[in-house]
Design a protein that fits this description.
134 residues, Arc Repressor Mutant, subunit A, four-stranded mixed β-sheet, 5 helices, Dna Ligase, domain 1, globular, homodimer, alpha+beta, DNA-binding
Chain lengths: 134, 134
DNA sequence: TTTCATACTTGTAATTATTACAAATAGATG
DNA sequence: CATCTATTTGTAATAATTACAAGTATGAAA
């Protein structure tokens, strides 16, 4: 895997302190944080960072396909450092969002009923392993 | 298909003028309107209706499973009078949301990786038939 | 290295979507 | 008709996001 610096260069993104921090934070977790979660975590080490920068950076990263955005029912927007297509599971009780790598999706066809498919998003909702046990 | 009145009674919902109007409007279309679209259309025939009532009614209908809510990437919440499970296609150019009845979904399993699946939402994004032709 | 132009960040204000809430209204029941 | 309760309405509050202008940092050129 290429370094962050390299991936930024490839896409013509200037590697500012803020952008690097945001991406490093995101890549270190798999819980699909929201803007607020990212801000709250980073503002401790970087007290001057602003929420607008988080928004700007994430918009740029999504545009350049270095980050994926998820809009799951009722949860607002969440961000995912993994851009390879995969599905997500939302636990309606604890709210956590889990990656599901192995779900093969039938709708990966290029064309459906005459419409050109560019992207497939599959969200499963239910009770996660832990919450289900009670 | 049962009448609206009957379906309301079954669920213990009082059939107020507003609720009936909102549901009738929704059932007459298949373009998955937003709260604003519904409000703008109804306020002409019912000048005193309030947006809060639209929100309240839709929340109730979703709760009682007479309406489905869709949260597609970037489009805010849209509402669908069809509650049988089916998929949706969003055209990234013209913004329309199309029903896809025939997409069979592989993930209709009851359980995935230990998590209990209660609901499956599949969104396809791309260019619709019309927009694609250009 | 200084200078300059440009890109990036920040804080604030504006916008949009949604919910909370209390007062007014309508509808059902006795 | 009188009363009780559910519903609706308007307004205010909240939350998420975007717009924008001013300040700051960065890189290139001199």
């Amino acid at each position: 895997m290429k370094s962050l610096q390299e991936r930024f260069e490839d896409k013509g993104i200037r590697p500012s302190q803020q952008r690097l921090r945001i991406m490093k934070y995101l890549e270190g977790r798999h819980d699909h944080p929201s803007v607020d979660m990212i801000y709250d975590a980073l503002v401790r080490e970087m007290p001057t960072i602003s929420k607008t920068t988080i928004y700007n950076t994430l918009r740029l990263m999504v545009e350049k396909a270095l980050v994926a955005d998820l809009t799951i029912s009722g949860q607002g927007v969440r961000y995912d450092p993994v851009t390879e297509p995969h599905s997500h599971f939302l636990c309606r009780k604890c709210g956590q969002v889990i990656d599901l790598e192995d779900i093969e999706c039938p709708c990966l066809k290029k064309e459906v009923q005459g419409n050109k498919v560019e992207e497939v998003r599959v969200y499963l909702i239910g009770l996660c392993k832990k919450c289900h046990r009670r």
